[in-house]
Design a protein that fits this description.
This protein has 2 domains: 191 residues, MFS general substrate transporter like domains (Growth Hormone, Chain: A, Up-down Bundle); 208 residues, Growth Hormone, Chain: A (Up-down Bundle). Helix content is 77%, strand content 0%. It contains 20 helices and no strands. The protein is mostly helical and 444 residues long. It is globular, with a radius of gyration of 22 Å. The longest helix is centred in the C-terminal third of the chain and has 57 residues.
């Protein structure tokens, strides 16, 4: 016999799962799968391939520069918003770019697989750069399509499903490449992985042009082109407190980025083996991340965007303390599992709530341009600081103090967002993508 408590628990569980089964969030899952695979092709997969071909370590690490396309994709994102493609453009601005960039990614990945590192390393480099640029362009349009496909109430769940998809696409493509490379060679392995672009392209076929898409103003000539390039930033800057919002986006993730980019150094210096790192950092961390993404979607649904973002910012800041504790404790498998689990759970929640907030900041007229700018701004400060000063800082103060400092660095972002909530700026800054039944943004 079912008790009232059990029945209420089952009803709450169904209510929590139901938003994930709607068409738009499910589409976001498949969009995420296609978004993640290209990154994997020029990441660990290419590193493994080059190493197996006996390429020197210095040359292998130089290929990391191909990721720069993802950091600077905002430079050509306005083109995705404003340039109408010939022939297929009649199927809609978003779908035509989704299909076009998908084909570009597939072609670039196939070219990368066909290039022989031992015979033509320069061609491998060119192909890797092509994958980076095409993949970043694919990301631009996938993000825009996802934001415009989701209703404001679905942004949290949709962002979570996109995060799931990204992980599936990156891990799935990387695993498939390794399995096939041992059997049919790297050329055919890369060709097979190119098919990971298809889920997003099929979403465009099944879901159609997003109903919430707003075409930017059309024009001809050099002035019109220049105006189209600057209009996304100009529209954002006309909003109340735009500079404060941009400053928040710039600083909110610095502490989290500093901590995450140095974890492998910590594990190495604490004497963890590769097997231990693989099990705890990758295995336990991956499960905790997926749990965090699910929890983030529920938190966004129940608490609302502002409180969910604030809670996730606090959790991400506090999670850095777990690595300070691990550094103090030394080599401890239980400590590593706890620290990695907590950090990934917090990151999973933040990956949903903060991504949803950045999505909501966009105008439906300039979704591609504004989201590319905001996402780049959110990561650039932490990456720059890490690459220029962190190694020296760790040597000077030690890991414990360093992770305590990363926690303190995260505090201003938490306080600033809390002040934005209290002042009403968190609401005023929202673009039409975050408003139900919104019309194109106007000056407020």
């Amino acid at each position: 016999m079912t008790t009232p408590r059990a029945s209420a628990t089952r009803d709450r569980l169904r209510a929590g799962i139901r938003p994930y089964l709607e068409a738009a969030p499910l589409a976001a899952l498949f969009l995420g799968i296609s978004s993640g695979f290209a990154f994997a092709m020029i990441g660990a997969t290419l590193t493994t391939r080059l190493a197996q071909h006996g390429i020197t370590k210095s040359t292998v690490t130089a290929f990391a520069l191909t990721f720069l396309a993802y950091n600077f994709k905002f430079l050509w994102a306005p083109m995705v918003d404003s340039v109408r493609l010939p022939l297929i453009g009649r199927y809609g601005q978003r779908r035509s770019w989704l299909w076009f960039s998908g084909l570009l990614v597939m072609g670039a990945v196939i070219l990368l697989g066909a290039a022989d590192p031992n015979q033509a390393l320069h061609l491998v480099a060119i192909a890797a750069i092509a994958v980076g640029i095409a993949g970043a362009t694919f990301d631009i349009i996938i993000d825009a399509y996802r934001i415009e496909l989701l209703e404001p109430r679905q942004l949290g769940v949709g962002s979570g499903m996109s995060q799931y998809g990204w992980r599936i696409g990156a891990a799935g493509a990387g695993a498939l490449a390794l399995l096939l490379a041992n059997r049919v060679g790297w050329t055919w392995a890369y060709a097979a992985c190119a098919s990971f672009a298809l889920p997003a392209m099929l979403v465009g076929l099944a879901m159609g042009e997003p109903a919430r898409h707003r075409e930017p103003a059309a024009g001809r000539g050099l002035y019109a082109a220049f105006s189209a390039y600057l209009s996304p930033l100009a529209e954002f800057m006309r909003r109340s407190g735009a500079l404060v919002v941009l400053f928040f986006v710039l600083i909110h993730k610095i502490g989290d980025t500093l901590a995450n980019l140095t974890l492998r150094l910590l594990f190495q210096d604490l004497g963890f083996t590769n097997d231990e790192i693989a099990f705890y950092d990758i295995g336990v961390g991956f499960i905790a991340l997926l749990a965090g993404v699910f929890a983030g979607g529920i938190l966004y649904e129940r608490a609302g965007m502002k409180r969910a973002v604030l809670a996730s910012l606090i959790l991400m800041a506090v999670s850095n303390l777990s690595f300070a504790a691990l550094a103090a404790a030394g080599h401890s498998n239980a400590g590593m599992a706890a620290a990695v689990g907590f950090e990934n759970f917090a990151s999973g929640i933040g990956g949903v709530t903060v991504v949803a907030y950045l999505s909501a900041l966009c105008s439906l007229r300039f979704t591609a341009s504004q989201y590319a700018l905001l996402s780049a701004l959110a990561s650039i400060a932490g990456r720059f600081i890490t690459g220029t000063t962190v190694g020296t800082l760790i040597e000077a103060v030690g890991y414990v103090t360093f992770y305590l400092l990363t926690t303190l660095v995260a505090v201003p972002g938490v306080i600033l967002f809390w002040m934005m909530i209290r002042s009403g700026l968190a609401d005023l800054s929202i673009g039409s993508a975050g408003r139900e039944g919104a019309q194109p943004d106007v000056q407020r």
